[in-house]
UniProtKB/TrEMBL annotation:
It comes from Thalassomonas actiniarum. SUPFAM superfamilies: CBS-domain pair. Residues 7-70, 81-137 form the CBS domain. Transmembrane segments: none annotated. Keywords: CBS domain. SMART domains: CBS. This is CBS domain-containing protein. Signal peptide: none annotated. CDD domains: CBS_pair_AcuB_like.
């Protein structure tokens, strides 16, 4: 079993110059936790919902919202995104991916091609689901 068998290939990406407002809209619309950041189709970073909420005021969208709160929505993704990425190829065995998650304390693993273009993503939630389904199948 390789990552290619389980990764999501329906990728949602941002560019480095997109802002927090666009990222927030994507997170809200798609119910995801990670967005890959690309520059000329090459993977350059990752932006998580945790990154977003660390930089947003809790007053956003409420009657307490101020101009300063909404100004933060204009902050560019490249100022916040994670640049030091752990990635893998689609042919990586699933058990090696689990080790990458554990050893590097990461919550997602972008899958890239030989040109460092993203072709998929797998998250710790996906890994838990895979393991749970395998366990259930063995228990039947």
């Amino acid at each position: 079993m390789s990552i290619a068998d389980y990764m999501s290939t329906k990728l949602i990406t941002l560019s480095m110059d997109d802002d927090l407002g666009k990222a927030k809209a994507i997170f809200d619309q798609h119910q995801i936790h990670h967005i890959l950041v690309t520059d000329n189709k090459e993977l350059v970073g990752i932006f998580t919902d945790r990154d977003l909420y660390k930089h947003l005021s809790p007053a956003i969208g409420t009657y307490k919202e101020t101009h300063k709160d909404t100004a933060y929505l204009q902050k560019k993704i490249h100022l916040i995104m994670t640049r030091d990425l752990i990635t893998c190829a689609a042919n990586l065995p699933l058990n090696e991916a689990v080790v990458l998650f554990y050893d590097n304390h990461i919550s997602c693993l972008p899958v890239v091609d030989e040109h460092y273009r993203p072709v998929g993503i797998i998250t710790w939630r996906d890994i838990i689901k895979i393991l749970a389904l395998q366990h259930k199948k063995r228990s039947e």
